[in-house]
Amino acid sequence: MIETFLLYMALGAVAGVLAGLLGIGGGLVVVPMLVFALPAQGVDAAVLMQIALGTSMAAIIFTATSSLKAHHQRGAVRWDVVIRISPGIVVGTFFGAMVASRMPTHTLKVIFIVFLYYVAAQMFLNKKPKPSRRLPGSAGMFGAGCTIGSMSSFVGIGGGTLSVPFMTWCNIPFHTVIGTSAAIGLPIALAGTAGYVVGGLGNDMLPPLSLGFVYGPALLGIVGASVLTAPLGAKLAHSLPVDRLKRFFAILLLVVATRMLLGLF
User: Fold this and answer.
1) In 3D, which of 82, 33, 85 has the Cα closest to residue 59?
2) Cα–Cα distance between 156 and 80 in angstroms, integer?
3) What is the model's pLDDT at position 93?
4) Residue 126 domain boundaries
5) Residue 210 pairs with which residues in a beta bridge?
6) In Å, what is the CA distance from 241 to each residue of 21, 180, 197, 238?
7) 132 in helix, strand or coil?
8) Which one, of 172, 238, 254, lies nearest residue 22 by Cα?
């Protein structure tokens, strides 16, 4: 049990750094690692992906909070963007999580694997949308929030892989984009956690110490380390060559996605 808790802490430490460094919330690391680790705790395969996604969302509440504080202190959060996009984020994420709670875990794995390959390709090729316009109006921001939130709930992330391109496309400076993405991760995590908790209540296949599809021991270990390392990631984001780090991370995502893909057969 101690070894398992230490594993979750190590996972949380990595997730925290990535949350601050790349504005991705850490879910791209947390979800696949939970998929690999949870079966050792006797988690039923039928609910494996839902628990991984729900626990990842709950952990992002803490990593996003720690990361956004660090970015806010550096003046790198556009709070007007956060306020305008949050209503759509909350609606899209909550209902997306409710839908995902009722989907077969195999289907969710396929969705997540495809998403990993997509993100890896984007990071490795370093493709960025050309900043060609300003932020849309209220209806456009609500629609963008719903899209980012619903997709985030299906893959257990803080939305950075979607909100970063969106804000870059809207001509927001990149360092501000990262900080704002970290702030947007908080309403995504709150709404997504609520959706996975409600969606998992009464499920007979949940392991002990679970609240809906949120697994307590994993959450505790991940959060315990991630809140300490997220500020470090935010600091590194302003001093390291982020493009090179993205390419390295893309290779890691390709390895993880392939490992998960092979596990389907």
Assistant:
1) 33
2) 25
3) 94
4) 2-263
5) 215
6) 10, 19, 38, 9
7) coil
8) 238
